[in-house]
Amino acid sequence: MSPSRMTTQHVAAGMVCGMQTTTHPPAVALNGLTKRYGARAAVDNLSIEIPPGVVAGFVGPNGAGKTTTMAMLLGLVRATEGTGTVLGAPLEDPASYLGRVGALIEAPAFYPGLTGTQNLAVLATVGGHDVAQIPDLLELVGLTERADDRFRQYSFGMKQRLGIAGALLGDPRLLILDEPINGLDPAGVHEMRGLIGRLAGGGRTVLISSHLLTELEQVCDWLIVIDGGRLAFQGPAAELADRAGTRLVVAPEHPRDVDRLAALLVAAGHENQAVDGHLAIAVNGTEPRELAAAVNRTASAGGIVLAELHTAHISLEDRYLTMVNGEDR
Amino acid sequence: MIQMFKAELLKLRRPRVALAGVASSLAFAAIATVTVFLSATDGSGPPPARGATIESLGQAGGATDAFVVGVSFIGILMLVLFIANVASEFSQGTFRTLLMRQPRRVGMLAGKMAALLLVAAGWLALTEIVTVVASTLIAPAQDVSTASWFGLDGLGEAASDYATALFGVTAWASLGMALAVFVRSIPLALGIGIVWSGPLEHLLADAWTTASQWFPGLLLEALAAGGTAEVSSTRALTLVALYVAGAAGAAALVFARRDITA
């Protein structure tokens, strides 16, 4: 299938959520994957499963272990412990699956003195792919007019796009992109998001990493959050979004009353979470005004004067930051 | 291995690279020929340490004497070129890009070396041919007879000189590749390679005369000279072959097992 045809089909298919295709083996399944450098664990007992056909966001702060995990998936880095499969093939045998995987990891690395076309030809030859697809791939990433310029003459955004074209050689079933948006200007970010959207679907699984959830939440239907090499969350993006939303923030006049107020609220059926001397109560389908009145009555009945009672919107990003800052494990 | 071999050739068959190769071959052959013929003595004085006499140039191997003398100086150049080529794959991150497409690392390294050595072999062949042509042109002006050059003996000498030169280039290339794989940094690998095979081996040999029988750079010099009083060409050939096998094996092992993080 030519890349241009492929693209048309993918656009028509849209972002197919992987949960519809779970009869197939997971695109990626990792079980207790660990990578240690001396005493430090870059990836620590990571077990994840990515359904086939999803656009999976791999999110975590800088140094969380995202790139190391991807490098282990690609056979660049050897795992210290753990097992896994990629497209159904064992992780220990990258040669058995890398022909079906395309990747752009860290900064795009090509030969500076070769043109875009020549660089892709080298890559296609090494991978045993047909070089005839190169013009279509360059068109897909919008580099046709600069195809014969040397790589060293490309802007950063163009280098990223050439990296994606390289990753698409051989029409891979799994596409792994490591921070593809990092370092791009706003126009480049917009362009890249559009490109990633076009690459998804049609049964292809896309795994994209970023240290910013906001970069991915628009394109991902599956999320994996890691921090300190450990899994913090995995599941449908909608599930994480459900945990976000509006909350009622409550604070007693005297900080010593926080724990007692929390207990009173739980007894009254209002599950809450203590954050920085405040209590946060999720507004799940309740009218915020009614909930605020109920909380106020409960506090008052317990002899506690409230100093704060207001609503606050918890964005997906806030939810993610709370998670990786260790307040929500 | 074959895929990497083809890919490396794709990089090397660009017009710029070909032009640079041909130009350097022509320049190298011209300089070597002119230097050897103009410095050739008439045999009345002491024999030159390197170079030739008018009499030796008129013998069967005279057509390639300039080639033999010239290539004895290119060992360090080959070391530098192979270090730069292999180490730059690490520093540019291109090994990472390639390995995501082809994870069989030993085959990748072997394919790359085979392609580079094929080009080096072509460059040596061109240089030898140009040297023979240049020698033929310059010989009459220096009263050197070319009568014995183009017989079977002359062709045999030319083939033998080519084989020795190619072996020497392969050895320097293997040592350079291994150093690049171990160190992964162009400046560091170049520094170690040049300092060791240049001044350090000779300084050590001054202090420890047996060094010339063991150190790879000195053995390669002895091999290029067709053997010396201290080291026979057979010993040099055998030990250099062992060095090459050891370097290639160690480089393959390290490259296969090391994490690619750059």
- Regarding quaternary structure, how should these chains be classified? heterodimer
Principal-axis shape of chain A equals: elongated
CATH hierarchy: architecture of the largest domain in chain A: 3-Layer(aba) Sandwich
Instruction: Indicate the mean pLDDT of chain B.
Output: 86
Q: Beta-sheet strand percentage of chain A?
A: 25-35%
Kindly report how far apart the N and C termini of chain B lie: 22 Å
User: What spatial order of strands do you see in the largest sheet of chain A?
Assistant: 6-7-8-3-9-10
**How big a fraction of the residues of chain B is strand?**
under 5%
Q: Any idea what the radius of gyration of chain B is?
A: 20 Å
Kindly state the percentage of residues in helix of chain A: 25-40%
The greatest interface here is: A-B, 31 and 25 residues
- The low-pLDDT segments of chain A are 1-22
N to C succession of SSEs of chain B:
HHHHHHHHHHH
Major β-sheet profile of chain A: 6 strands, mixed
Per DSSP E runs of 2 or more residues, the count of β-strands of chain A stands at: 14
How many domains of chain B? Answer: 1
Taking the alpha carbons of the first and last residues of chain A, their distance comes to: 45 Å
Rounded to an integer in angstroms, the radius of gyration calculated over CA atoms of chain A is 24 Å
Sum this structure up briefly.
Chain A has 329 residues and is of the alpha/beta class.
What this model shows, in words?
The complex is a heterodimer of chains A (329) and B (262). With 329 residues, chain A is α/β, with parallel strands linked by helices. Chain A contains eleven helices and 14 strands. In chain A, the strands form three sheets. Chain A has a six-stranded mixed sheet, with helices on both faces. A four-stranded antiparallel sheet of chain A has the order 2-1-4-5, covered by helices on one side. In chain A, strands 12-13-11-14 form a four-stranded antiparallel sheet. In chain A, strand 4 and strand 5 form a beta hairpin. Chain A is elongated, with a radius of gyration of 24 Å. Residues 1-22 of chain A have low confidence and may be disordered. By secondary structure, chain B is an all-alpha fold. Chain B has one domain. The chains are: A alpha/beta (329), B mainly alpha (262). The A-B interface holds A 71, 74-78, 94-95, 98, 101, 103, 105-114, 118, 121-123, 125-128, 166, 169 and B 3-4, 6-7, 10-11, 14, 16, 92-94, 96-104, 108, 257, 259-261.
